[in-house]
Automatic annotation (TrEMBL):
Gene designation: LOC107775161
Gene Ontology CC entries for this record: DNA replication factor A complex
Record SUPFAM superfamilies: Nucleic acid-binding proteins
GO biological process: DNA replication; double-strand break repair via homologous recombination; meiotic cell cycle; nucleotide-excision repair; telomere maintenance via telomerase
GO molecular function, one term: damaged DNA binding
InterPro entries, per the entry: NA-bd_OB-fold (IPR012340)
Alphabetical UniProt keywords: DNA-binding
Organism superkingdom: Eukaryota
This protein's name: Replication protein A 70 kDa DNA-binding subunit B isoform X1
Length: 306
């Protein structure tokens, strides 16, 4: 029934509003949803979607995504087996969804919990995308919370450890160089080196291994001339080729995601593009930590004046 028809039929309009009111009564934020909650719907933003992986015994294929609500409270949602493919086209990063009556349980003991509960999205769960043109119930605004570690502190992190505490979770950086595919390591694994940089012109090698090389590396190679900004989650510090960073099986690489911090870094790129171009042209990816930015003319000082 369209709106014009409802205006001509007061009873129809009253009925429509009663349905909408009842629907909104079931709309809950993440912190209100427990295993005992029945008939609920939550409006959430998908902020993290790692690749599917298998259990240690190889028998179970699963994927863990992270969603957050209007209060930026987060919860992990788990998909298994065929449900991963069924909802693959629905669940895209930074889109808004109405998720209804997913199973709610206590997180499994071997996982690092995002919340005191986690959801299981299966064939009985209703997942509906909120479209951009939905005026009555618009999508959630882009997320704002992003805890990042400064490059200057990377030396302090333990080798081969994730930045796993609550203050050091993510890296945000500009990609200034992207190497080609190669095979390295004890098992000749496929990989790709990229150089990332912060606003202090500090640079690091980030190694993309296996499918991160295929998927994210290919995108970055095509965009590197534009100096894309990435947010890298759950990466490790290694001594590969000197001090460097590396992806893990559960890492996530987000390219130009809609965080305000990314927008500010993109503005910095626009202001410093000539210097970044000079850097890319004069330096190789194998020496990210020993490279020196080419000086500006007004930074050159005669030896006699030193």
């Amino acid at each position: 029934m369209d709106l014009d028809t409802l205006k001509l039929n007061p009873l129809g309009l009253t009925y429509a509003f009663s349905i909408y009111r009842e629907y909104m009564e079931y709309r809950l934020t993440i912190d209100k949803i427990t295993p005992q909650t029945k008939e609920w719907t939550s409006k959430v933003h998908l902020i993290k979607k790692p690749r599917p992986r298998k259990s240690k015994d190889g028998k179970t294929r699963f994927q863990i995504v992270v969603v957050q609500d209007e209060n930026e409270d987060k919860v992990a949602a788990v998909l298994y087996g065929e449900d991963i493919e069924k909802d693959a086209h629905k669940l895209t990063p930074f889109s808004t969804y109405l998720i209804s009556t997913a199973k709610v349980r206590i997180p499994l003991p071997y996982r690092v919990p995002t919340n005191r509960f986690e959801w299981v999205i299966d064939r009985f769960t209703v997942v509906e995308e909120v479209k951009d043109d939905n005026i009555q119930d618009p999508p959630l605004p882009p997320p704002t919370r992003l805890n990042t570690i400064h490059f200057a502190y990377l030396q302090e992190q333990q080798q081969n450890k994730e930045f796993g505490n609550h203050n050091f979770t993510h890296i945000i950086a500009v990609v200034v160089n992207c190497g080609s595919i190669k095979y390295d390591g004890a098992n000749s694994n496929k990989c790709r080196e990229i150089i990332i940089m912060d606003t202090g012109m500090n640079s690091f090698i980030l190694m993309l291994w296996e499918d991160f090389d295929d998927v994210d590396g290919s995108i970055l190679a095509a965009q590197v001339a534009k100096y894309p900004v990435i947010v890298a989650k759950r990466i490790t510090r290694t001594t590969y080729g000197g001090l460097s960073l590396s992806t893990r099986y559960n890492s996530v690489i987000l390219i130009n995601p809609p965080y305000p911090q990314v927008g500010r870094l993109q503005n910095w790129v626009a202001d410093n593009r000539p210097r970044l171009m000079r850097y890319s042209q004069q330096n190789s990816s194998r020496a990210a930590l020993s490279l020196v930015m080419a000086p500006e003319d007004n930074d050159i000082v005669p030896i006699a004046n030193i």
